[in-house]
Fold this protein.
Amino acid sequence: MTRRSFLGCCLAGGAWRGFAASGRPNFVFILADDLGWADTTPYGADLHETPNLERLAREGVRFTRAYAASPVCSPTRGSIQTGKYPARLRITIWREAALRGPERRAVITPAVAADLPHEEVTIAEVLREAGYFTIHIGKWHLGGAEHYPETQGYDVNIGGSVWGAPATYFWPYRGPFGQAGEYRYVPGLHLGRSGEYLTDRLTDEALKMMDAAAGRPFFLNLCYHTVHTPIEGKPELVEHYRRRIAPGLHHRNAGYAAMVRCLDENVGRLLRYLDERGLAANTVVIFTSDNGGYINVWRGEQVTDNYPLRSGKGSLYEGGIRVPLIVRAPGCAAGRTCEEPVCSTDFYPTMLELAGLKGDAKHNATVDGISFAKLLRRPEERLERDELYFHYPHYYATTTPVSAILRREGGRQWKLLEYFEGGRVELYDLAGDPGEQRDLAQQFPDVVRRLRERLHAWWKQVGAPLPTPNPEARPAAN
């Protein structure tokens, strides 16, 4: 979509029809951390129980091909705040790794940004300028103190800090973290009690802040730490799921299942609050995740399984970037499923359209997302876009540096992955192979050539940070 058509989307018809006369809906944006596409029952989870997300899916639109803009956290979070691809922001890895600088392996990974630049216009800044009470609660992970939510358009910040994961999910939410034993804490959560659980407490704070809006339209950016490691569920729920594990289940981690259940319970608390306060009819609720599920091992157990998708967090296979997305808005096509691909870059222009706001013209000129607001009423429609791009020029347990393009052509859903080590490519048709089991690169060389050209042109367009050959690297042993 062109920048001109983006602006047209935001301006056409003013605010979303069906909201209160003010034309300013509330937004409750719920972001889970590391929650996989198949980790909830609306998406086929077998061990986990998520009745409140089932309710949200009945009352909203469930997207089956929603993508995080990155397979790791900070880049996706930057894309949500700005509507821009992580490659354009030069935020392509989480903050701590960015601060460590390039890795020198078979290729030398690029130096990238660790903080969300103040020059970028966030969704909170646009909404606050329009009179919204803007609230951030939970994980931030987009910069040091000089880049905290308060400097990026948020009136309130509870819990948002430099860190990407808590030391513990139990009060007082502080202690040593990781192999280095770094001391961590969650700021702003004082006067707790023994046994108090972080996911519950963040919801407590969210409810207080929505009350504090006192009639003003509000934007709640509620970023739960769950289900990121450490894998710590409430003991009674862990035991409940331990008894439920049976042969043949894809999900087999009782602690993780307990965390998913608590996440779902708190979604239920938010929905009940909106009902009880009479706010549901004028509030957009968005539920999603920042990347695919973490399939690696934590304390001897695999954390989750993204079946039927391939791989997980860190990878540009579907298991690393496809995420759950359910959106409930007044007047939406309740209970419907949408198969149109959407991306986390799209939340920015979508919320602008729903609120009837233009945003900042200079910023809009380089926004990569497009509004999917029309899909909430007509999920069968298509967006004016045939391509999505992904860029992860770094190493992770599930991948070497890689970039990818998704392109729709006729009945094909092509996906090309190009790895920077040796320029290896893989090609899949997701229309018939969502699990990416059949590499078609040798069978369709013309498609590979064409998609590589488009991917390389995109690198130049957005200024993507690229790895470089490592002259000191030794050839791989046969």
Observations:
- The longest strand covers residues 402-409.
- Residues 1-15 have pLDDT under 50 and may be disordered.
